[in-house]
């Protein structure tokens, strides 16, 4: 793609993106949002690295369109949304859209084999309806219709990717040293009031406030906010992960890399790489209707046996590397799992592409086999 869609956008965020160690820094609210949703940076960094330096061998970048099974669109939708003026951003979106859709590869498949990173729910929003055939890289599905219109997203077509954690990895030594200090039963630090599906947060706050071994705090930005969240998670057995404005929340991945067992209260949540990872081994799933009942959640957590807690914490230590983005990308890290999940879609993509190319005018031209049934923990 033209330089202004890739390298020039990276330059806007140069001080952060140049030093990969700074990508988990919890700075200003805008900085934090870009970092949490910076999956497009990490995937592109893997693809443009010299093959001799890449550790992942299950995806190969080719130079000719005819040789490609998939086309990755290296457009940094989140960076442009947050760092450009509104009208400037929309103009860039339209220009990127025209460039991509004018390409022979797009016209050949109608975009079905193209991969578009739109990990923030506002990213590319003004034009993405024109690219709804592409594989979208998303934080969740959001079946409420607040962020994605009906027919735009589905589990068959798209991929869920984890947020970039805002806290540092608690490695094996850290987990061992922190085990004796985990005296808090349940911890949450973040925005206590959210909109849409996140309204359950306020109800949970009302239910859990004032309990001696429970910590519920309003989150703050900056290094102090990051340190407080990290310290709290490393002192806790369970970490609350309720829905935010969308079904997903970065708190889930912060908890995982902190060795704190997530307690997920988000009835419509879809999870990253669930075709590969079994989240029941590392997290507890609770329906919203149960969680807000007086006394129910605390009774449930106190009845989890020490043996189950030890087993889940051990599994967290094994799973955490699946959620740590890095450069170079590591085997079984999130970048690797993205490529593995994407490879599993290639056959279906070719089916829909070839079918669309051969149907005659009188044929039923729309295949309705998308997986659209909402997730439910009830």
UniProtKB/TrEMBL annotation:
Keywords annotated in UniProt: Glycosyltransferase, Golgi apparatus, Signal-anchor, Transferase, Transmembrane
Provide one Gene Ontology cellular component.
Golgi membrane
Where is each Exostosin GT47 domain found? 1-298
Quote one Gene Ontology molecular function term.
Answer: glycosyltransferase activity
Any stretches that span the bilayer, and where are they? none
InterPro entries named among the record's database cross-references: Exostosin, Exostosin_GT47
Q: Which Pfam families match?
A: Exostosin_GT47
> Carries keyword Ribonucleoprotein?
no
Q: Answer yes or no on keyword Transferase.
A: yes
The places in or outside the cell where this protein is found are: Golgi apparatus membrane
Organism superkingdom? Eukaryota
User: Coiled coil: which residue ranges?
Assistant: none
Major place of localization?
Answer: Golgi
What membrane topology does the annotation report for this chain? Single-pass type II membrane protein
> What family is this?
Belongs to the glycosyltransferase 47 family.
The entry's protein name is Exostosin GT47 domain-containing protein
According to its UniProt entry, this protein's organism is Punica granatum (Pomegranate)
